[in-house]
Amino acid sequence: MSALLQVDGIECRYDQLVITQDISFALNQGDICCLLGPSGCGKTTLLRTIAGFDQVYAGQIKLNGELISSPSMMLQPEQRQVGMVFQDYALFPHLSIADNIGFGLRKLSDSDKKKRVHEMLELVNMQELAERYPHELSGGQQQRVALARALAPRPQLILLDEPFSNLDFELRKHLGLEVRRILKALNISAVLVTHDQTEAFAMADYVGVLNQGRLQQWDTPFNLYHEPRNRFVANFVGQGYFVPGVLKEHHKVETEVGLFEGNRAYPWPEGTEVDVLLRPDDIIENPQGHIKATVEQHTFAGSATLYRLRLPSGQIVESMFNSHAEYSIGEQVCIEMKADHLILFKKDESCASLAR
């Protein structure tokens, strides 16, 4: 089965400034993907290129097997069967909610248009608000209207440009799951742009991590967290710190916090200096533990507290403790390591690939 969206070797430029380079990925029908990365990494430019707002300098984009962008041609946005949901919603203030949703349905008869608008209102659970105007709605309601309007023409693909960034955390989380449910119910593929990895992991089947215009890794959220391809992905996805160590065997490494024996083997010779990625769930509180760390900072998060700890060498790590455990800044706490899934990088390689 061929991919619905195929992006091959895309390079985007503004004048002579290179924004993205050699980006390739594919998206199947019904899949939701997220372009994740820091500000300025090129993710919005890439989304605009897929939408047809920006020309590609090199490479090509195909939608359902049809070429829609290359250096020599660019199918106009309205001809692409692609829906777009913008960060600022872009609703028409002088039109009712029903008229906003039906705006792009000019080719339908009046009866079919009315039926489609009613279907979209039901889909986003806003039947009772059809005659209201955008300024009478909350931010979350406006976002649902924007989604319904983008879905109404039944596009092959939906593009979402940081659609929840103007909403508070709880609403963002709820609406993200609701949007995923709607897209999955309709079997519509989507590309979401965000800098929020929690949002990306909750919504996406696949995540593409970008940095400085290059795609660092395209993978499932699980693999990005547990199998980061390089140091940037390891640092950007999830919380974690690197602790220096020395490889003892292909699956063992000695560090200041003890000997780790993992479930994977690395091809480097014994004695190789490495950095071990330790995430908060790799470090646990243990009153009988042999390692004493000093509390530098703590952040209460309800059921757990995130502690920033300084090891005897001065190395910083983080750990999630049960919220019933209370330690003050400057206090010492006994810990132990429970990392059996080793993620190692060579000391002298800034972007080393993981062993496979």
Write up this protein:
This protein folds into two domains: 5-233, 3-Layer(aba) Sandwich (Rossmann fold); 239-346, OB fold (Dihydrolipoamide Acetyltransferase, E2P), CATH 2.40.50.140. Helices cover 22% and strands 35% of the residues. It has helices at 43-51, 97-101, 110-123, 139-151, 169-186, 197-203, 221-226, 231-236; strands at 5-14, 17-27, 32-36, 58-63, 66-70, 73-74, 82-85, 157-161, 189-194, 206-211, 214-219, 241-249, 252-255, 258-261, 273-278, 283-285, 291-300, 304-310, 316-322, 332-337, 344-346. The strands form four sheets. Strands 7-8-9-3-10-11 form a six-stranded mixed sheet, with helices on both faces. With 356 residues, the chain is α+β, with helices and mostly antiparallel strands.
Task: Supply the number of structural domains.
Answer: 2
* Strand line-up of the largest beta sheet: 7-8-9-3-10-11
The name CATH uses for the topology of the largest domain is Rossmann fold
Strand content: 35-45%
CA radius of gyration is 24 Å
Series of H and E elements: EEEHEEEEHHHEHEHEEHHEEEEEEEEEE
Biggest β-sheet, characterized?
Answer: 6 strands, mixed
Helix tally? 8
Large-scale geometry: globular
Question: Which features does this protein show?
Answer:
ATP-binding, OB fold (Dihydrolipoamide Acetyltransferase, E2P), disordered C terminus, NA-bd_OB-fold, Rossmann fold, Mo/tungstate-bd_C_term_dom, six-stranded mixed beta sheet, ABC_transporter-like_ATP-bd, alpha+beta, nucleotide-binding, five-stranded antiparallel beta sheet
